[in-house]
Specification:
The protein is α+β, with helices and mostly antiparallel strands. The protein has helices at about 5-10, 15-20, 20-30, 70-80, 105, and strands spanning about 45-50, 65-70, 85, 110. It has one domain. The longest helix is centred in the last third of the chain and has 13 residues, at about 70-80. The structure holds zinc ion.
């Protein structure tokens, strides 16, 4: 495991991240529902996705997106696969709902 990965894992498990005002605001704004498929607990596990790591450790609300674990896995896998492309995730006001299986086609992708 790299030093960066260890730092990431430590932060994601920290109270600083759990209690981050931006994280809590994003959870509140999303109603605790996945921004892509619209599902929530207890049906699915809810996670907060970093749209960018530019402010990692001091995130802004717009840096974060509420996703269920299934959609989060799809997004993360797709971002890794398409390192030279930017996955276009919904903005806060976007009400589209996509299922994880069709999420990539639903969201769209632009070249970086
Ligand atoms: Zn979802």
């Amino acid at each position: 495991m790299t030093v960066a990965r260890i730092a990431y894992e430590t932060y994601i498990r920290s109270d600083a991240w759990r209690n981050s005002p931006s994280r809590l605001l994003e959870l509140e704004r999303s109603g605790g529902l996945c921004r892509l498929c619209g599902r929530g607990q207890p049906e699915v596990r809810i996670e907060i996705h970093h749209r960018t790591y530019a402010n990692f450790g001091n995130e802004r609300p717009e840096d974060l997106t509420t996703l269920c674990s299934a959609c989060h896995a799809v997004v993360t896998d797709e971002l890794r696969r398409r390192r030279v492309q930017i996955l276009v995730l919904p903005v806060l006001s976007d009400t589209r709902r996509c299922l994880p299986e069709t999420a990539i086609a639903c969201w769209g992708v632009i070249d970086a």
